[in-house]
């Protein structure tokens, strides 16, 4: 290229930068180019290699565990005309559009029952088999591809689950080969997917862009959490008209819904904003791995002193004076169930030395309680039947957390009735409450010591309303992101048990 042509090209690029900056500085709202892509897969499947190949980074030659934390979180260069990702270049001076891409690893396998039995060696064998998709024999390649395709189709036979699929096509790629044609096709598809998203080029106040850039800089500098006062100062010191209090709240809610930060608008959590949510993932992982008292953890208990030691460790000393906030955040998410007990005389809260952690309980109920106590003569029951074909385990764990925070676990034949997806609590001397979940429903049974006719109606009604309201709150996380209706999203219907304890005896509440 001649010197004159290079100068003309630089002049054209400079003019484009000037026009872009002028548009940004003179308009109240600007288009937002924002998107995220999540990559999930089995352990050691090569997710990091795939991501690094897609974004043009150096592909790792040796496996390094990411422990489920983000592989890449930052800005990528995106060519607007060709609508393609660009590899990072030191001599690239064009005006970049920020495309945020966060890649998370997921440790769940497609078939959970098989995955739980696999050892590390079997995982390595799976990876080796996956890498053998590219032998010289094309017939063998075709057979392996058809086998994988058939296995994936079996996972999406349910129509409701299948409706979430955007693309029916499968890409077979060699993530270790930069020149692989499948990689280029996949990159083109992801680029198109970003551009076709309704939120691409969506107009936002330019102050939103400024605040997001400032928070991204602070994350790059190693900050994890800011106070609301810090956010207010950043907002006031920007070069444009500061956002009003209402607009700033809207910005924080939008960023929270996108997963870019964590902002909980409740009276005891709204004073702090987690600008790098990956530290919460670190925290959750440490709760499972950092404690030697495994016997307590297997029974779903975590001592507060152990949690304090974890916060004081070198790994989490960066959280500093925010440990109380993170405790409250874990309780808010129902990861930890705070046991709330009060003195009957003074009404003051009694401090309990441990939390319940229902999501860590894997032992199933093998007692005779269900057979001996849950009978048609002694109990009444109702069920939350979900509209979807599968209830996420997190919903069950969170509802059990709510129950444990209010009532004591019942002891039957010297065994605490707290198991995976099953708990029994004592309401008073005569009434017990059972919560049991399966793949499509959560069944609640109220048992009287003698017979069901003696169950106090006001007590039964209060318990039902309490659990229903909590389940509403928990289910809001799973509401439809694109729902335009302002009405509350309710993913379940409530039915009551009539006459017997068989599922066929469930009838709608409105028909009672």
Describe what this molecule looks like in 3D.
By secondary structure, the chain is α+β, with helices and mostly antiparallel strands. It has four domains: 26 residues; 150 residues, no CATH class; 136 residues, no CATH class; 141 residues, Alpha-D-phosphohexomutase, C-terminal domain (TATA-Binding Protein, 2-Layer Sandwich), CATH 3.30.310.50. The chain is 39% helix and 17% strand. It contains 17 helices and 22 strands. The strands form seven sheets. Strands 13, 14, 17, 18, 19, 20, 21 and 22 form an eight-stranded antiparallel β-sheet that branches. A three-stranded antiparallel β-sheet has the order 3-2-4. Helix 16 packs across helix 17. It is globular. About 11% of the residues have low confidence.
């Amino acid at each position: 290229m001649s010197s004159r042509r290079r100068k003309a090209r630089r002049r054209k690029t400079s003019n484009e930068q000037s026009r872009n900056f002028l548009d940004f500085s003179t308009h109240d709202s600007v288009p937002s180019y924002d998107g995220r892509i999540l990559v999930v897969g089995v352990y050691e499947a090569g997710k990091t290699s795939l991501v690094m190949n897609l974004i043009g980074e150096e592909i790792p030659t040796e496996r390094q565990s990411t422990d489920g934390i983000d592989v890449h979180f930052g800005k990528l260069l995106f060519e607007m005309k060709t609508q393609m990702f660009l590899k990072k270049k030191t001599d690239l001076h064009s005006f970049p559009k920020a495309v945020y891409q966060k890649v998370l690893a997921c440790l769940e396998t497609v078939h959970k029952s098989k995955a739980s039995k696999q050892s590390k060696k079997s995982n390595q064998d799976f990876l080796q088999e996956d890498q053998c998709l590219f032998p010289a024999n094309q017939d063998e390649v075709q057979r392996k591809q058809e086998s994988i395709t058939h296995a994936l189709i079996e996972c999406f036979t349910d129509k409701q689950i299948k409706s979430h699929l955007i693309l029916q096509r499968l890409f077979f790629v060699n993530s270790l080969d930069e020149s692989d044609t499948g990689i280029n096709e996949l990159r083109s598809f992801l680029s198109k997917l970003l551009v076709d998203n309704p939120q691409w080029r969506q107009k936002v106040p330019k102050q939103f862009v400024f605040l997001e850039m400032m928070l991204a800089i602070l994350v790059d500098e190693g900050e994890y959490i800011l106070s609301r006062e810090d956010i207010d100062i950043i907002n006031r010191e920007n070069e444009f008209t500061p956002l009003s209090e209402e607009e700033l709240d809207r910005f924080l809610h939008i960023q929270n819904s996108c997963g870019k930060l964590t902002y909980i608008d409740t009276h005891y959590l709204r004073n702090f904003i987690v600008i790098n949510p990956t530290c919460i993932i670190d925290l959750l992982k440490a709760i499972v791995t950092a404690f030697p008292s495994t016997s307590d953890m297997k029974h779903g208990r975590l001592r507060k002193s152990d949690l304090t030691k974890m916060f004081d460790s070198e790994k989490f000393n960066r959280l500093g004076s925010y440990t109380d906030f993170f405790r409250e955040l874990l309780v808010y998410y129902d990861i930890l169930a705070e046991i709330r007990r009060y003195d009957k005389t003074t009404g003051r809260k009694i401090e309990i030395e441990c939390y319940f952690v229902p999501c860590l309980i894997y032992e199933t109920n093998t007692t005779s309680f269900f057979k001996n106590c849950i009978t048609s003569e002694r109990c009444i029951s109702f069920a939350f039947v979900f509209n979807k074909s599968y209830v996420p385990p997190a919903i069950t764990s969170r509802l059990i957390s709510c129950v444990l925070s209010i009532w004591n676990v019942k002891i039957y034949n010297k065994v605490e009735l707290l198991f995976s997806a099953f708990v029994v609590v004592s309401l008073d001397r005569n009434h017990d409450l059972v919560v049991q979940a399966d793949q499509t429903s959560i069944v609640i049974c109220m048992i009287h010591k003698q017979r069901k006719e003696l169950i106090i109606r006001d007590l039964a009604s209060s318990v039902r309303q309490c659990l229903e309201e909590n389940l509403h709150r928990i289910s809001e996380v799973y509401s439809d992101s694109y729902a335009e209706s302002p009405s509350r999203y309710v993913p379940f219907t409530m039915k009551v048990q009539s006459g017997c304890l068989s599922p066929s005896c469930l009838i709608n509440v409105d028909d009672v």
